[in-house]
Amino acid sequence: xxxxxxxxxxxxxxxxxxxxxxxxxxxxxxxxxxxxxxxxxxxxxxxxxxxxxxxxxxxxxxxxxxxxxxxxxxxxxxxxxxxxxxxxxxxxxxxxxxxx
Length: 100
Prior knowledge:
The protein contains 4 helices and 6 strands; from the N terminus they run αβαβαββββα. With 100 residues, it is of the alpha+beta class. The protein has helices at residues 4-7, 15-24, 37-48, 96-99, and strands at residues 8-11, 26-31, 52-60, 64-69, 72-77, 81-88. The longest helix is centred in the middle third of the chain and has 12 residues, at 37-48. It has one domain: Alpha-Beta Plaits.
């Protein structure tokens, strides 16, 4: 099994993520593409010492991008990634500045 630091890559701190952190005690993470719900749950529990209530996983596709260079137009995609939404027990919280 992989180490918790290999499964949880980084937190996602968007406006929606910060709002859901306050309202529903849900946290968003960018996780390894091969990780499943069980691995994410155990990694969060080991790394942050909290109780996980629920885990949802979403595969985020890359968005099409284009840019213009001196050689012409270059088209491509942003990288795809896997996002995990972790709901914690109502008494537990995470502080990203201390734990990461």
